[in-house]
Inverse folding.
């Protein structure tokens, strides 16, 4: 059962991982996006619809990424170009996504798709414990293993990453050196949305293998919180995502093993856990926050 | 909120305030309607006939106008729950959870006093329970803010889900009404606990509560020391601290009062409209209230108008479902688009939060 929970954590955490990485990129540039929940929703539907029509879940991933990126683009326009309040804009986009996916999603409810299937990696998958936990999953889970170091490398070792972090730490310095803060932030928010869209697509075409209204059920909001206590570092995001993935999958694992527990009490666990971790880490995380983001987070310091 | 203008703030042409605002609003709403029509069209439904049906069925029928007012009541209170903390620069995205917790507490209190309790007793106990629960729920976020420096926008949103699962836990568990067929609900509140209707209309007295709340908050903001101090804290907390204002107490009071208002919204929705807790009880009241408060640019009296506007949109959902066969949740698109337009058109001037 422990192995089930750990393996479920990796599988269930993958959507949080992609969304969390996306949010990390966005927040590193100084933009918080509560619309991540919305980006995951449109990503889930976009991924499902494309998979349904093309028969290829890989194209579905692209569809999910495109849908998430489009929604995040609206956030970028409102927040970066129009100076709108970031929370208000994010929540607005969540609503927009709720409506859009309800309207365009009806046709896809209880339709069959050729979803991703678990691919066991030879040799590695046969290692006891580690094998089933890490190496017997759908391809998107493995993609997550690759994307984390990739994002970390881009963020900390490349010029693009330097520009991204400058936009979040000292936006005026970026401007002085002839770079456009606006362009950097657009790129960050939109690519963040694309990653959140992939996260959403993982839920519909690899995890649940179905589409239903409001299927993200708060995972996007968990992803946003995750980024804060991961202290804006991709590797911490990975650990946090799997931890919360485990909490999310706890309900189904326990039920599958015949343990009689109230499902709704279990459903609240990831959210409670997030609150507790945020509180315990509290001030320590904020010291690591990008300066420009702090202006958004600390509107009134108590 | 002060640090909103993250991008390079660009000055819009200083249109003369009144006509400029009206024109922007008109343009914003038209744009939203046009885009919404395009989406409807994409679903092979004629948008003009849908909009026509909405117009005749929602806005010209007295019954529907009453329905709009009934729906607007919790929206207005939930919007005020965002306005008050917003005055102090806090972002309360937790209206949804505070509404649910308020309703759960009210329902629990109603069961505790029993279905045949005297109306005065039932109402008093239920209102108190709702208000305390809503305030306490927001108080959790306030405490986390003050103790752990955790951003309240994030914590309140997480608490929404905890509240939702708490309610589901209860109504699918020990509170489940065995007499009710089908959908799991809590037992209906006693007849004495139901809010009376205004005259011969279908509108319950909750709307009076909402109007009074808006007036009181307007008065508090503009005519009391507390309101002034709150505004100072919202404008520049550091300056407020140096001036010797009790910043901590002010922030705490603003967020808790927000929770109290949201709890009240939960109460009036339960005692005036729903009478029992269903799995869909919250129905986004808190989130829609959040949007309504932004529509009203956080002005307490304008909230009454914006709440009626979003209620009209919400009611439209039923019409959409019945007459065009589109999912009721589709109206969230319209809700979102109006907000996108409003945020996009009006934010640059000055974001007052």
């Amino acid at each position: 059962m422990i192995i089930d929970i750990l393996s479920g954590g990796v599988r269930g955490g993958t959507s949080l991982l992609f969304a969390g990485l996306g949010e990390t990129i966005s927040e590193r540039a100084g933009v918080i996006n509560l619309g991540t929940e919305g980006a995951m929703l449109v990503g889930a539907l976009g991924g499902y619809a494309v998979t349904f029509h093309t028969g290829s879940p890989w194209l579905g991933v692209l569809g999910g990424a495109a849908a998430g990126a489009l929604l995040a683009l609206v956030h970028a326009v409102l927040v970066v170009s129009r100076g709108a309040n970031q929370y208000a804009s994010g929540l607005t986009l969540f609503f927009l996504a709720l409506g859009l996916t309800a309207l365009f999603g009806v046709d896809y409810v209880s339709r069959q798709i050729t979803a991703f299937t678990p691919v066991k990696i030879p040799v590695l998958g046969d290692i006891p414990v580690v094998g089933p936990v890490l190496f017997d999953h759908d391809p998107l889970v493995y993609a997550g293993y690759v994307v984390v170091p990739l994002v970390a490398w881009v963020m900390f070792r490349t010029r693009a990453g330097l520009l991204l972090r400058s936009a979040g730490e000292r936006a005026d310095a970026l401007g002085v050196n002839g770079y456009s803060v606006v362009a950097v932030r657009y790129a960050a928010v939109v690519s963040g949305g694309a990653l959140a869209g992939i996260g959403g697509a993982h839920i519909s075409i690899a995890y649940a293998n179905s589409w239903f209204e409001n299927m993200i059920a708060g995972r996007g909001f968990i992803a946003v919180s995750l980024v804060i206590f991961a202290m804006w570092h991709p590797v911490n995001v990975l650990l946090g995502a799997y931890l919360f993935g485990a909490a999310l999958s706890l309900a189904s694992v326990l039920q599958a093993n015949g343990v009689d527990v109230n499902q709704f009490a279990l459903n609240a666990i990831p959210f409670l856990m997030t609150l507790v971790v945020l509180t315990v880490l509290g001030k320590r995380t904020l010291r690591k926050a990008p300066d420009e983001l702090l202006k958004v987070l600390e509107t009134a310091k108590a | 909120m002060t640090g909103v203008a993250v991008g390079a703030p660009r000055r819009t042409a200083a249109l003369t305030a009144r006509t400029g605002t009206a024109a922007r609003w008109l343009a914003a709403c038209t744009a939203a309607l046009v885009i919404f029509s395009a989406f409807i069209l994409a679903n092979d439904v004629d948008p003009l006939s849908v909009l026509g049906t909405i117009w005749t069925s929602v806005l010209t029928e007295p019954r529907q106008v009453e329905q709009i007012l009934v729906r607007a009541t919790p929206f207005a209170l939930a919007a005020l729950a965002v306005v008050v903390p917003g005055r102090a620069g806090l972002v309360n995205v937790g209206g949804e959870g505070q509404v649910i917790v308020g309703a759960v507490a009210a329902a629990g209190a109603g069961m505790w006093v029993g279905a045949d309790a005297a109306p005065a007793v039932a109402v008093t106990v239920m209102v108190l329970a709702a208000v305390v629960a809503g305030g306490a729920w927001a108080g959790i976020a306030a405490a986390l803010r003050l103790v752990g420096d955790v951003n309240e926008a994030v914590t309140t949103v997480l608490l929404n889900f905890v509240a939702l699962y708490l309610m589901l836990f209860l109504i699918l568990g020990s509170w489940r009404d065995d007499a009710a067929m089908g959908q799991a609900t809590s037992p209906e509140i006693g007849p004495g606990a139901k809010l009376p209707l205004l005259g011969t209309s279908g509108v319950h007295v909750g709307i009076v509560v909402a109007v009074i709340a808006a007036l009181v908050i307007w008065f508090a903001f503009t005519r009391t020391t507390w309101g002034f101090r709150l505004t100072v804290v919202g404008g520049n907390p550091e300056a407020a601290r140096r001036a010797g204002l009790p910043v901590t107490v002010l922030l705490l009071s603003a967020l808790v009062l927000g929770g109290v208002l949201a709890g009240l919204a939960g109460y009036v929705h339960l005692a005036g409209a729903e009478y029992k807790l269903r799995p869909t009880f919250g129905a986004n009241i808190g989130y829609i209230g959040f949007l309504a408060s932004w529509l009203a640019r956080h002005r307490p009296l304008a909230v009454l108008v914006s709440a009626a506007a979003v209620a009209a949109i919400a009611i439209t959902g039923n019409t959409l479902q019945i007459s065009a066969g589109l999912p009721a949740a589709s109206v969230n698109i319209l809700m979102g688009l109006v907000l996108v337009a409003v945020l996009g058109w009006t934010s640059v001037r000055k974001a007052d939060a």
Summary: The first helix of chain B runs from residue 17 to 42. The radius of gyration of chain B is 21 Å. Chain B touches chain A through 74 residues (CB under 8 Å). Residues 1-15, 349-353 of chain B have pLDDT under 50 and may be disordered.
